[in-house]
Amino acid sequence: MACTAQQARPSEADPASELFEVCDDSGNVLGTELRSIVHKTGLLHKAVYCFVFDTRGRLLIQRRSSKKSIGPNQWDLSVAEHLSPGEGFREAAARGLQEELGITGVLLPQQPLGPMHRRSLLVPGKYVDNELVESYELRGFQGEVSFNPAEVSEVKYIELPDLVTQMAAEPQNFTEWFRDELTLLCFFGCKPVDGSGISQQQQRAGCPNLN
User: Fold this and answer.
1) Alpha helices (H) along the chain
2) Helices (H) and strands (E) in the chain, counts
3) What's the maximum distance between 2 C-alpha atoms anywhere in the chain?
4) Which residues, listed in sequence order, are joined to residue 63 by a DSSP beta bridge?
5) 15 Cβ contact list (under 8 Å, min separation 6)
6) 137 and 51 Cβ atoms separated by less than 8 Å
7) Residues 171-210: pLDDT tens digits?
8) What pLDDT, on the 0 to 100 scale, is given for residue 12?
9) What is the per-residue burial (b if ≥16 Cβ within 10 Å, else e) of 50-67?
10) What is the pLDDT of residues 138-173, one digit of tens each?
11) Which residue of 38, 144, 148, 198 has the fewest C-beta atoms within 10 A of its own C-beta?
């Protein structure tokens, strides 16, 4: 697999002037607001995750750029994208694949991995990030990845058992939402390599395949 930086993309990682739709707990749109204000005040908005797997079942993960305002230099899931005004979750996932990883011409499933759910991230003095999220997966990908250096510094494929073990050993190296979402998805039914390292949080999530 070729993993090269794509230069013909916007150079700003988190533009403060970007508009987000503000919504209620049911996802109904109430209006729009600037990214900077949304993340400062904790207004509820929408985001989408996409997990990309290759033909060997390995998960594509990305290391976030040092320029990112949240989670710089941490490993993250394949794509995490805010929705643009008027955009649906699935449409935003496809856009994120193109903008962050240069992946185009793929067909995402019609249905998400689970129901829309709420995620919150508090960075004291900096951010109050409240999102409604849907997750999608792309299986059997075998194309090239050309990542956007403004947002991504590195990409790699990883076996799920290795990922589980690494997350348990060094959770600080991974974004909080990546860890939480994998827990919610029961790590796609995967156990760690050595059969250990499952946190109490994962056990409480009710994932029988992790026991």
Assistant:
1) 35-41, 89-101, 160-169, 176-184, 200-204
2) 5, 11
3) 49
4) 75, 154
5) 35
6) yes
7) 999 999 999 999 999 999 885 544 444 443 344 344 543 3
8) 67
9) bbbbbeeebbbbbbbbee
10) 999 999 999 999 999 999 999 999 999 999 999 999
11) 144
Residue with tokens 């991230």: 121
CA distance 154 to 166: 17
What's the pLDDT score for residue 7? 38
Query: For residue 28, with 0-12 CB atoms within 10 Å meaning exposed, 13-18 middle and 19 or more buried, which class applies?
Result: exposed
Show the tokens assigned to 89.
């979750």
Strands (E), 88-171: 117-123, 127-141, 145-147, 152-158
Residues 6+ apart with CB under 8 A from 111: none
- The token pair at 169 is 């050993």
Pick the CATH number of 18-158 from 3.40.140.10, 3.40.190.10, 3.30.70.20, 3.90.79.10: 3.90.79.10
Token pair listed for 79: 């794509």
Amino acid making up residue 23: C
Q: Locate tokens 């939402």: which residue?
A: 177
- How far is 202 from 125, CA to CA, in rounded Å? 29
Token pair in block for residue 93: 């996932």
Closest CA to 62 of 134, 140, 132, 6: 6
Q: pTM, whole model, 2 decimals? A: 0.86
Domain with CATH 3.90.79.10 in the chain: 18-158
